Amino acid sequence: MAIEGKLAGKVALVTGSGRGIGREIALKLAREGAALVINDLDPAPAEETLAAIRALGGQAVACNGSVTEADFGDRFVKAALENFGGIDIIVNNAGYTWDNVIQKMTDEQWYAIIDVHMTAPFRILRAAADFIREAAKKEAAEGREVFRKVVNISSTSGVFGNAGQANYSAAKAGISGMTRALAKEWGRYKVNVNAVAFGLIMTRLTEAVAGAGATIDIEGREIKVGVRPEALKNAEATIPLGRGGRPEEAAGSVYLFCIPESNYVTGQTLVVAGGRP
Fold first, then answer.
1. pLDDT at 2
2. 258 by DSSP, 3-state: which?
3. Cα 131 vs. chain centroid, distance in angstroms?
4. Is 264 part of the annotated catalytic residue set?
5. Share of the chain above pLDDT 90, in %
6. pTM of this prediction?
7. Catalytic residue among 168, 189, 255, 264
8. 3-state secondary structure of 39
9. Distance of alpha carbon 4 from alpha carbon 7, whole angstroms
10. Distance CA 73, CA 122 (A)
11. Residue 137 CA from chain centroid, whole number
12. Which of 3, 16, 11 is nearest to 58 (CA)?
């Protein structure tokens, strides 16, 4: 039986939805009735998200692999159209950080972060453009007003900057600029394009780690993750709400931009940081 909710009958695509914030976004949208195309770099976490959605009674398929692959946007959009016949929501969530001060940052570090946070969303949205334009024209001819949603994930690093993150700050500021531009391009097609800029959200990328810390493998690169316990404690002390956010809370802010109540909100970047500037 299909889930009845505010997103019943909608089709949502969420990148990086095997773990962390992306997984919680996918689950939130599924609970509200959306059919999902999920994605992860690795098949195993994607399968876990698929199983969780199906356990809720929802529908989902996976389109795995790196979002930075040149053909990924086309594959992602094709998965939605072939399995569910449409596209209503696109959430560009996939990403990671690879930090260094600018004098030590390599070209590889720079381009890797720009590619995953800016180029990949650009390609996905470009791939979806033909369907969105044709669907909107058909709906307008029928006298129907149907809204679609794009939510791009930014960061407070992109709003305020952050030392050691010239690449990430630039990419996240860029995705907010892309959001504003596309809101103007796609307004005629009744597409709301917004961004959410997260502050400290507690995932495997930001959990407290001692010593040398943990790493994750991104396409053969060993990337350090985690935050030193004292640095995490200091960061949380600057948050008016007193703690980092939970992934499900982060997902809730994305959900706000996906529901009909936000149909007249577009081109905005919402800072979700517990009140921390």
1. 65
2. coil
3. 20
4. no
5. 84
6. 0.93
7. 168
8. coil
9. 8
10. 9
11. 27
12. 3
> Which DSSP symbol is given to 176?
H
> What pLDDT is stored for residue 232 in this prediction?
72
The token pair at 71 is 């053909």
Tens-place pLDDT, residues 223-269: 766 666 777 777 888 899 999 999 999 999 999 999 999 999 999 99
In the chain, the domains with their CATH numbers are 11-203+246-272 (3.40.50.720)
Token match 């809101």: residue?
183
The span from the CA of 115 to the CA of 96, in Å, is 11
| Distance, CA of 61 to CA of 37 (rounded, Å) | 5
Condensed to tens digits (0 to 9), the pLDDT of residues 113-152 reads: 999 999 999 999 999 999 999 999 999 999 999 999 999 9
CA distances from 247 to 14, 25, 46, 202, 221 (A): 15, 8, 17, 7, 25
SS3 270: strand
